[in-house]
Design a protein that fits this description.
The structure is a homodimer of 254-residue chains.
Chain A (H helix, E strand, L loop, with lengths): L1 H9 L1 E15 L2 E9 L5 E2 L2 E5 L4 H13 L5 E8 L11 H11 L1 H9 L3 E8 L13 E8 L10 H18 L10 E3 H12 L5 H10 L3 E7 L9 E5 L1 H10 L6
Parallel strand pairs in A: 1-6
Antiparallel strand pairs in A: 1-2, 1-4, 2-3, 2-7, 5-6, 8-10, 9-10
Helix pairs in contact in A: 3-4
Chain A binds a DNA duplex (27 and 27 nucleotides) through helix 7.
Protein name (chains A, B): NUDIX hydrolase
Keywords (chains A, B): Hydrolase
GO molecular function (chains A, B): hydrolase activity
DNA sequence: GCAAAAGTGTTCTAGTTACACCCATGC
DNA sequence: GCATGGGTGTAACTAGAACACTTTTGC
């Protein structure tokens, strides 16, 4: 195992890595996928190393695929973190010792003492489709509500904060939702998604008017059944028009 | 010299570097600062290596300072370029041979055959204050009009294209001009800057109204003298209010 | 005096915001 | 039948767009 890991390290870049903030949306809450490191209670973002012959974007896609099982998901590079003190959060000796005991001394040095620049990506995924899988260093995957994220290893709390900022920037210039919602969804669900990301309430009528004005939504003849209260209509994104709106850009200004 | 260079390489990261798109504005034209490589007619962006104990941002500031003599300039990280074929533009053997003859074979390998991820920054500088200075590999600095930029080495044409996109994004959400214009300037000059960056014409009255509404400009009792035609008033940014507007953001929507 | 650029306000339009009543469903 | 949430349109307001004439200066 240690041998495998060394071979893997030898095939990958040592000074640059990737970390991904994977956003999901469920039960009206915005969530991020986090990993718990083996033998510890330290959590971190999913991330990974880049093969020497692999582009950054390809590595990000691969890492996402490895952790969620999903391909073809929305993935966006948002910032590259290059402070020299990126590992300072990881100073609790107890944690380090446990890791060292588990992985061996060499790996410890490689992982935590080297200075590494990390390229931050954020991904938007459909919560229900994710098959979360831990990696070499971790043995638990969990979705955390944005508001409940604990103190993370490395500078990963900062990474989430700025990913969220980038997502908020994104949502104001491009449609969002295709990757975060199931194929069919109701207008109140879409509105709740926007409200959750932007932490802001909207008027139902105005929201509907604005979203429909982008001409990316298709109102279906179906309604969501089995829920309390009046059955809401179902909508679906028109993939073609949605893609076009992504490229040409929209201005969501509520 | 070769020895110095090897020592420098040993103190810096090998897999990550920085490239800077330095924008200036002069005579109604948006310009970028480019460097010509010694013994060649190949041009590239200013860039540099990162010291092992230096943060990305500090390295970018240092590189800018080295090339322009300026400190405290507007600097923004906009994208990290990590394709594996980033060096493919550099295939002209004649160029490579000349470089090899000049720098020696070792340097050639290090620089051009290694796969390097490059963090892109763009800077906005006041044209007149720049004392452009070439680096180790180059012997000429020149300002080029954006529209006249030749085919550059590496993937640097792409870098300029996306820096310009990022700048256009920037200008719509934050005030711009403090770093690109001299201390005192006229409203038509400021308008020309906006028009040049966005490649779009504005109505003088509406432009003035909008810019003044941000409450970041101070109209002076002076006029620019000695120019043809009616003397325009001079304006100055109110640094405090300008900084506040940068943080809180504006919406330039013309 | 003439050409070229700058100073200045108002009207119209379009987009954004505010707002309320009825209806369907589950319990 | 009642509580809860969803569906739907209009009026007021505000911000953006369009627009022209006068003034100053250098040549």
């Amino acid at each position: 195992m240690d041998q495998d890991l060394k071979a893997y390290f030898a095939k990958t870049l040592a000074e640059v890595s990737i970390d991904c903030v994977i956003f999901g949306f469920h039960a009206g809450e915005l969530k991020v996928l986090l990993l718990r490191w083996k033998e510890t209670d330290g959590w971190s973002l999913p991330g990974g190393r880049i093969f020497k012959e692999e582009s950054l974007n390809a590595a990000a896609v691969r890492i996402l695929q490895e952790r969620t099982g999903l391909t073809e998901i929305f993935l966006h590079q948002y910032y590259t973190f290059g402070d020299t003190n990126r590992n300072t959060h990881f100073t609790e000796m107890e944690l380090l010792e446990r890791l060292e005991g588990f992985f061996g001394k060499g790996i410890f040095d490689e992982l935590l003492h080297n200075r590494v620049v990390s390229v931050g990506y954020f991904a938007l995924v459909e919560f229900a489709l994710v098959q979360a899988t831990p990696d070499w260093f971790t043995d638990e995957c969990r979705w955390w509500n944005i508001a409940d994220v604990p103190n993370l290893l490395f500078d990963h709390n900062d990474m989430i904060t700025s990913a969220l900022q980038a997502l908020r920037q994104q949502i104001r210039n491009q449609p969002i939702g295709y990757d975060l919602l199931p194929e069919k969804f109701t207008m109140p669900e879409l509105q709740k998604l926007y409200e959750t990301i932007l932490d802001k309430q909207f008027d139902r009528r105005n929201f509907q008017k604005l979203l429909m004005s982008y001409d990316i939504l298709e109102k279906l003849d179906e309604k969501r059944v089995g829920v309390a209260n009046k059955s809401p209509f179902l909508y679906r994104f028109d993939k073609q028009k949605y893609e076009k709106a992504i490229h040409s850009g929209i201005s969501f200004s509520m």
